[in-house]
Specification:
single chain, Spore Coat Polysaccharide Biosynthesis Protein SpsA, Chain A
Length: 314
């Protein structure tokens, strides 16, 4: 029987309340598949937590046959940077990405591995059957995925999670993507390879609060669209062309109407409405262009996505 070298990547930000419980459940899950593993490592990526996440991880007791490591960032660089760091640092033949908040049950790793073992897939990812959120957030989520999938060539399933198992081939492909502003859900889909989806049970947070509010989710979603589609720029061009054509035709109508029929030119209110409308369209188009230019600016500076402050073995 073939045995796998497994890396478990755990991005953390202000998770002091759940680290101990998560680690216990994770070790239990890994113990249930230990006969199928040749080696196991757990990588906690501490993304500049402001609480005692670092201290809680260092208090964990090591387990036989499991190498546990803590990587501390110099500051908070964001979850995307933590995921990238974990993929760069992991040494396993396969890797599992999982959050520490226990909304993604560690016991489900066994299901991921069972599906991966069939040899039919290079990546097995998860999604929730439903989202236990308010009506507004559910509606906005559905709207976002609908807009996103209509704009990009590579579709993302609604409610998809980062919780997944990846082959070394997929990991290496992801690491070749040199984007500064990373949208991992899009990158996972964009690199291709054979993949399948499993429905993952949802659990309530074991502690702490969600780090993503609507503003952060909006910024993250916008980054996804800009990173994988130039269609907004084309829409801006077509919109400008249509408005210019309509304005030209309306101008001809006004000239003919005034000279041929003596109709007076429309008054001040209509002129103000047109000016404000055109101004709003111009600002919106400039904003779209600005998003792309800003990403070019960030990319060409070639700054590192993160800095590691320290690395500790648990």
């Amino acid at each position: 029987m073939h045995k796998y070298s497994l890396s478990v990547i755990v991005p953390c930000y202000n998770e002091e309340d759940v680290i101990a419980k998560f680690y216990k459940e994770l070790l239990s899950a890994l113990d249930s598949i230990s006969e199928e593993l040749s080696s196991t490592e757990i990588l906690f990526i501490n993304d500049g937590s402001k609480d005692k996440t670092k201290e809680e991880v260092l208090k964990l007791e090591s387990s036989k046959g499991v190498e546990t490591k803590l990587i501390n960032f110099s500051r908070n660089f964001g979850k995307e940077s933590a995921l990238l760091c974990g993929l760069r640092e992991c040494r396993g033949d396969i890797a599992v990405i999982i959050d520490a908040d226990l909304q993604m049950p560690p016991s489900f790793i066994k299901n991921l591995l069972e599906t991966y073992k069939t040899g039919n897939y290079d990546m097995v990812y998860t999604k929730r059957a439903s989202r236990p959120e308010g009506l507004l957030r559910k509606a906005l989520t559905r709207l976002y995925y609908s807009i996103y999938n209509s704009l990009v060539d590579v579709r993302i399933e609604p409610n998809v999670l980062d919780y997944r198992i990846l082959s070394r081939k997929v990991i290496d492909a992801i690491l070749e993507v040199g984007e500064y502003h990373r949208f991992s859900k899009g990158i996972f889909a964009w690199v291709g390879f054979k993949s399948t989806c499993l429905i993952c049970p949802f659990e309530e947070r074991a502690g702490g609060v969600s780090k993503f509010n609507l503003r952060k989710l909006f910024s993250y979603g916008l980054a996804g669209v800009v990173s994988f589609s130039t269609l907004p720029l084309k829409v801006a061009f077509y919109l400008g062309f249509v408005i210019s054509l309509l304005s030209f035709l309306y101008g001809i109508y006004m000239v003919v109407s005034t000279l041929a029929f003596g109709n007076p030119v429309k008054g001040y209110p209509s002129l103000i409405v047109i000016i404000l409308f055109m101004g709003g369209i111009q600002i919106m188009i400039l904003g779209i262009i600005g998003e792309y230019i800003a990403r070019i600016y960030e990319q060409v500076k070639n700054r590192p996505q993160y800095f590691i402050d320290s690395t500790n073995k648990v």
